[in-house]
Amino acid sequence: MLEILTPAHLGWAVAVIFISVIVRFLLRLHFYRSLLKGLPGPPHSYIWGSLRSMNEVISKQPKRAAPQTFGSVIKEYYGLGDYFYVDPWPFGDPLMMVFDADIMNQFTVKQSMPKHPEVEKFMRNIGGPGNMVSSEGAEWKKWRSAFNPGFSASHLMSLVPSILDDVLIFNEILTKHAKNQEVFRMERATTSLTVDIIGKVVLDLDLGSQRGPNELVDAFMRQVRWQKIGAQFNPIELIDFPIRTPIQWYLTWKMDRYIGKRLDERFATREGRGRSKAVVDLALEAYLKEVKGASGDLSTVKGIDPEFKQAAIANMKTFVFAGHDTTSSTIVYTFYYLSKNPEMLAKIRKEHDEVFGTDPDATADRLREDARLLNRLEYTLAVIREVLRLQPPASTVRVGQKGFFLTDPKTGNRLPTEHMMLWPIDVGLHRSERYWPDPHRFAPERHLASSADSSADYNSKEAWVAFSKGNRNCVGQELAIIETKTILAMTLRTFDFEPAFSELDKLKGDNSGYPSDMSGVQEQFGDEAYQVQLGTAKPREGMPCRIKLRQQS
Ligand code: HEM
Question: So where does heme get bound (predicted)?
C-alpha cells in the first residue's frame, strides 16, 4: 500500500484538490456576479462584486459603527433608490436592501418569508436549536402560542410591582454615581436592570445582577461580546474560529446548565403552584399538554424529555437575550435625547407630575396602587417611539426564494429574490425624508395624534418598524414599552443626565468590554452617540455619562 503512495502521487492528489477548489471558487464567483447583473446597486465589478464600493463608504464611517446603519449611508453616497442589491460574496450572500415600506410589507406581512440562515447562525450561541426567533413553521407556531399568555396586557400590568422593585435598586445605583460625581457607562447599569427584570418574567427568579455577579448573566454578557456580526463587516471572523468556537461552546454549556436546573426545579415543584405565566412555567405547561395527549394521564411523567428540554432552554435563553438588550439601549437613548432637548424633558416631566403627582418619591406607590396609570403617558410613549425611530436596536432579515418576486410599487417591475438576503433597513426607513420630514431631528410630536407640529405625518406609521411587522413581529413589545415607561416615570424627575463622551479616557480598562477608543471618525448621522453592534445595536461605548440628583443641580 505504502509503495503505491509515492511523493508523485501525493503531489498529484494535492494538485487535483487545489484545482477543484479553484474551479469551484470560480464557478461560484461567476454565479454570484451574474446574479446581480442589471439590478440597481452601488458600483459592481466582476472581481470585487460590491466589496470595493461598500468599503469606499464604510471606511468613512466610525470603525465600530453597527452594520445595520451601513445600508443608509451606501444609499446616500451613491444616490440609490428605495431598494437596491449589494454583492459581498465571498463574505456573505447577496443582499437586497429595502427602504420602501410597501416592498417590506410584501415579504414580512403579505407573505412572511422565512428568516435568512444568518439569523439561525446569529441565534445559535445565544438561543440554540428550536429558538423562536429563527425557527419556522409548526415549531415556531407551537412556541409562539405557548408563550403568548405570558405577554397578555393584563399579565404584563401585574408585573409592574416587581419591575418597580428592580427600578428602586437602579435608582440607588444612580444616586451613588451622582453622589460620587463620577463618569460611568449608563448601558452597563441599564443592562443589569433589564436583565433582572427579564429574569423574573422568564425564570421567575431574582438574578440580582444589579447587586453583584450572577453566573447566568455573566455567561450571557460574555457570549454577546463573542457574537459574530458577519464576515462581510468583520473579516477576522473567517479565521478566528479556533478561539471563538470553544469559548462559545463553554458559555453555552454554562447557560444551559443554569437554565436546565431551573426547569427541573420548576417541574419538580409544579404541583402546589397555581397557574403561573412565567415563561418557564408556560414552557412546562406546553410540555405537559404534549405528553398528556389524548389519555390525559400525567401519572407516568417523571421528568422532562431531553429533546423538549433542549428546545425549552433555547427559548428561555432567547427571551432573556431579546428581552433585555434592546430595552436597555432604548432607555439609554431616551436619557440621551432628552438631555439634548431640555424643552421635551420639561414636557415629559410635566406629564409625569400630572399623572403621578408632583412628588417623584411617591411614583412607585402610585404605580403599585394602579399600574394602569402607565396608559395615560401619551407623551412618554411618543418619546419612546421617537427614540426607537432614530435608534432601532434590531431588524428582521428574510430569505428570498425561486419564483418569489417583489413588486416595485412605482413601476410595477418584478424584483428577483432567489439566493438573496432580504433586509428591510430599519435605520433607513426610519431616517427617510419620504416618510419623516426632517428625518434626523428628534421630534416625539410625530407620534402624537393631536400635534400642532407641521412635520407630523400620521400616515407614515407603516415606515415605523422598530418591532418589525407581520406575524413574526416582536412578542415582547408591550413588555418593553411598559418597562421603559415605568423606568422613565421613576427616574426622569429625580436625575439630570449628561453624556460625557469627551471623558471616555477616564473609563479605559474598566473591564466593561468597551474599548474607550476615541481615534478616527466618531460621528454618524451628525451624532456622537452612534450605534455599535454588540448582540443588538447599542449606544457607542455604553454611553459614558454623568448624572446629578435634581436637588443637587
Ligand atoms: C425596545 C425593545 C425591543 C425591540 C426594539 C425589539 C425588536 C424586535 C424585532 C425587530 C424583532 C424581529 C426580529 C426578527 O424578525 O428577526 C423582535 C422579535 C422578537 N422579540 Fe423583540 N424587541 C424588543 C423587546 C423584546 C422583549 C422585552 C422581549 C421578551 C420579553 C422580546 C422578545 C422577542 C422575541 C421572542 C422575538 C421573536 C418573535 C417571533 O419570531 O415570533 N423582545 N423583536
Answer: 474
Low-confidence ranges of the chain (pLDDT < 50): 552-553
For the question of whether the overall pTM of this predicted structure is more than 0.90, the answer is yes
User: Coil, helix or strand for 438?
Assistant: coil
pLDDT given at position 4: 67
272: CA distance to ligand 1 center in Å? 32
> For residue range 52-76, what is the model confidence (pLDDT) as tens digits?
999 999 999 999 999 999 999 999 9
Q: Round to whole Å and give the CA distance between 301 and 292.
A: 9
Q: Is the dihedral of CA 198, 200, 205, 206 positive or negative?
A: positive
- Say if ligand 1 is within 6 A of residue 324 CB: no
Q: Ligand 1: which atom is nearest the Cα of residue 484?
A: 1
Q: What does the DSSP assignment read for 345-397?
A: HHHHHHHHHHHH-S-GGGHHHHHHH-GGGGGG-HHHHHHHHHHHHHS------
* Angstrom distances, CA of residue 455 to CA of 97, 377, 505: 27, 22, 39
32-39 long-range contacts, Cβ below 8 Å, gap at least 24?
A: 32/87, 32/89, 32/94, 32/419, 33/87, 33/89, 35/87, 35/94, 35/419, 36/85, 36/87, 36/94, 39/84, 39/85, 39/416
The Cα–Cα gap between 37 and 30 comes to 11
Distance 46 CA to ligand 1 centre (A): 38
Residue position matching grid coordinates 443582499: 95
331 lines ligand 1 (CB under 6 A): no
Q: Is there an atom of ligand 1 within 6 Å of 225 CB?
A: no
Domain boundaries, the chain: 8-35, 38-549
pLDDT value at residue 298 = 66
CATH code: domain 38-549 is 1.10.630.10
For residue 437, give every residue at least 6 positions away whose Cβ sits within 8 Å of its Cβ, in sequence order, or none.
455, 457
Distance CA 532, CA 139 (A): 32
Is 545 within any annotated ligand binding site?
Answer: no
**C-beta atoms surrounding 27 within 10 Å:** 10
In this predicted structure, what is the pLDDT of residue 553? 47
Closest by CA position to 504, among listed 186, 174, 213: 186
Which residue's CA lies nearest to atom 43 of ligand 1?
474
